[in-house]
Design a protein that fits this description.
It is a single chain. This protein has 139 residues and is mostly helical. The protein contains seven helices and two strands. α1 packs antiparallel against α5 and α3 packs parallel to α5. The radius of gyration is 16 Å and the shape is globular.
Length: 139
């Protein structure tokens, strides 16, 4: 495996463990604290749900760009995505969310293992970050 992929995987693994440790450190009360006052108005628990839904959607984007696609549709409504997707996980417990987050991250790592060095340099559109290469989108 190329060094860039190994570095990305190491970052993804560390980020996963750091995120899980953070969310596990929060009390039940802290998980219900609203951390955004505008837009989606998420609680701390909903931020973890967002991590799950957005990373899961990124799998399509990564595969699309790696296969020569253009990436996100120009008309992708990121605000609508954020309003509708995260709330679908509201009924899950924090332990269920952590389990899903770990599984989604493992899937991301599997995708990275299959990429070539050339794939990391392919260009496409990310709905939030704009036009760029695949590597920083994954990181």
């Amino acid at each position: 495996m190329a060094d860039r992929r190994a570095d990305i995987i190491a970052e993804l693994e560390k980020g996963c463990e750091d995120s899980i440790a953070f969310f596990k450190s929060l009390t039940a009360e802290e998980l219900t604290v609203q951390v955004y006052q505008d837009g989606a108005e998420w609680t701390a628990k909903q931020v973890l749900a967002h991590f799950i839904t957005i990373e899961r959607s990124m799998h399509w984007l990564f595969k699309n760009i790696a296969s020569g696609g253009s990436g996100a549709p120009e008309d992708f409504d990121i605000e609508r995505f954020n309003r509708t997707q995260t709330s679908k996980l509201d009924e899950l417990t924090i332990d269920e969310l952590i389990s899903q987050f770990r599984a989604v991250r493992e899937d991301t790592i599997s995708i990275v293992r299959e990429l070539s060095e050339e794939d990391l340099d392919r260009e496409g559109l990310h709905a939030f970050h704009g036009h760029g290469t695949l590597e920083p989108f994954i990181r």
